[in-house]
Design goal:
Blueprint (H helix, E strand, L loop, with lengths): L1 E3 L9 H11 L7 E5 L6 H16 L4 E3 L23 E5 L3 H8 L7 E3 L8 H8 L4 E4 L4 H4 L17 E4 L3 H12 L3 H19 L1 H16 L7 H30 L1
Parallel strand pairs: 1-2, 2-4, 3-4, 5-6, 6-7
Length: 259
């Protein structure tokens, strides 16, 4: 299992830990990697990592915190030497781009756990879909639009379109979903992965960005009359905002394609 988020309290990574602990009771060979941006100068980052480590202890889960991309003086709680034996939980603060590529393309990866609620878009699920990885996300915000959840069964209508699962942020519910994803046959997992790749390419690729941006520009040009004062300002701000949003999506798609 993999979780990628900044080490911030609002990302609710505790949900991934608690759910993983419940699911691991039936799958003792499971491991959870918790990776993401981390700045030792930010109190929220430091406090969040510390609280996650404490939660792992309270759940009886062995864990190690390793990061090669931070200065040795960053924190005594972060090791710069990989553990001799991998524990149940691996914290990987301030991961690098190669780290992310390696994690998302690992043959042993079964699912990405995306824990934040009410995210505007959620870039990480798109990166996972582009890499052919099933996603388990909270049933709110961006994932409701970016993911497709028609269930995991082959007999269900449109099940071949499923790119992941969206569930209420409840550890018991998520633990069940994790166990369902782990139990998937290899062929079904490949079907979900291909559906994710198709959806990311169709809706969030560089080509789609170019087509929609061109369409927006042509639509603006076809207004066919001068636009002045407040109306002109509103259109300009709206166009700039749309362009910025589409640029961000395009960057995500480009990074995912390169990885």
């Amino acid at each position: 299992m993999l979780s990628i988020n900044r080490f911030e309290g609002k990302k609710d990574v505790e949900l991934a830990l608690a759910s993983f602990a419940l699911a691991r009771a039936d799958h003792s060979n499971l491991r959870l990697v918790i990776a993401g941006g981390y700045d030792p100068r930010l109190p929220d980052n430091v406090a969040t990592l510390s609280s996650l480590q404490a939660l792992a202890d309270s759940l009886g889960l062995s864990h190690a915190t390793f990061c090669a991309s931070l200065p040795p003086s960053a924190s005594p709680a972060i090791s710069h030497t990989p553990p001799a034996e991998l524990p149940s939980i691996v914290f990987l603060p301030n991961m690098t781009a190669p780290h992310k590529r390696a994690l998302l393309t690992a043959a042993s990866l079964r699912a990405l756990l995306y824990t934040p609620s009410f995210e505007h878009l959620g870039i990480v699920p798109l990166e996972a879909m582009s890499a052919g990885v099933a996603v388990l996300a909270t049933a709110s915000g961006g994932p409701l639009e970016t993911l497709v959840d028609h269930g995991l069964g082959e007999s269900e209508r449109d099940a071949h379109l499923t790119t992941g699962l969206v569930r209420a942020p409840n550890p018991q519910v998520w633990a069940t979903a994790i166990k369902d994803l782990v139990a998937l046959p290899a062929a079904r997992r490949r079907t979900i992965g291909e559906a994710g790749r198709r959806r990311a390419r169709l809706l969030f690729s560089v080509e789609t960005l170019a087509e929609e941006l061109e369409g927006a520009c042509r639509g603006a040009a076809e207004v066919g009359r001068p636009v002045w004062q407040e109306e002109g300002t509103m259109l300009a701000v709206g166009a700039a905002g749309m362009a910025a949003a589409m640029f961000a999506v395009g960057v995500v798609a480009l990074v995912a394609q390169r990885s």
